[in-house]
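Subject: for your reference before the review

Hello V.,

The reviewers asked for a structural picture of the protein, and I figured it would be easier to keep everything in one thread rather than splitting it across files. Below is the amino acid sequence we used in the manuscript, unchanged from the supplementary table.
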Amino acid sequence: MKARRFLFSAAALSVLLMTGCVMPDQMSQIQKDLADVRQRLQRVEREQGEALDKLTELESRAGDDEETVTREDLADVSVQLNQLAREAAITDERLNDLGRRLDRFSQDQAQARNLARRPAAPAVPAGGPETGEPESVPPHGGIGAVEDPQLLYNTAYADFSKGNYGLAISGFEEYYDRYPTNSLADNALYWVGECNFSQGNFTAALRAFDRLLEQFPTSDKAPAGNLKKGLAFLEQNQIGQAIVQLRYVVSTYAGTDEARVARDKLTSLGAPVEASGLDAPGGLN
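And here is what came back from the structure prediction:
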C-alpha cells in the first residue's frame, strides 16, 4: 500500500513538472524528499520482515521441548516491532505530507498567475502628489514593504513551498502581526507551525499550533493543527501525549481526513482508538 502511494506521488510530480507548476529548485527538493522517504520505507519494511521472521522462529522454538526461549527474547522482538510500527507511521505521514505539498504547489502557482494578471497600480511620486515629502519606509523592511496582504501571504507561502522555512516563518509572522483580523490570519499561524515541523523544530511547532488553537479555536485549520500536535509529540517520542492528542482528533473531528490519519496512527501504535472520559488535551508545558 505504501509503495502504491509513493508511485502515485511520483506520478503527480511528473504531471506538475510537465505543466510547469513546479520550479527547478522545488523539483530538486521534492525529488530528494521522495527518494529519502522511499529509502526509509524500504528499510523499515525490510527490518519488519526480519523481525517477523525472528518472532516466528522464536515461537517455533518455544514449542520444542529441547529449546528454551525466554520471555525476554519474545519481549525484545515485540519492542522492536512496535518501534518499527511507529517509524512506519511517521514515514507514512511524511509521504502524505509530500502529496499535500504537491497540491499546495499547484494552488500557489495558480494564485501567482492570478496576481500577475492584475493591472499594475499607477506610479506615484515619492512622498505623494501633494506633500512632496520623501516617502516613509514601511515597517520591517523586505517583505514588510509589500502593501498587498495577499501578496505578502503568497510570498511567504512560496518560500514555504521552496523549503525556505526561515523566510516563510518571518513572512507568515509578519502577515499575522500586520493583519491579525484578515481571513488568512489563522492560516498564517498554521503555516508557522508547519515550517517548524518541517525543520524538525517540534517544540516550536507545538507552540505555533497551540497559538493557532488558542486564537482561532473554530478555524478550518484546527483539525490539522490538532493532528500535527499529535505527530509532533510522536516525533519527540512522547507516546502517551501523542495517543491522547490523536484520540482527541478522532473524537472531535470524526469523519475528517485528519481523524482518519489519527486513527491509522493509533492503530499502528497498538493503542485503542477510544478512551473513556476523553478531554481536550492541554497546551505545551
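For the response letter, the relevant points are probably these. Residues 1-11, 15-24, 120-146 have pLDDT under 50 and may be disordered. Residues 5 and 11 are 10 Å apart (CA to CA).

Happy to draft the paragraph if you're swamped.

O.
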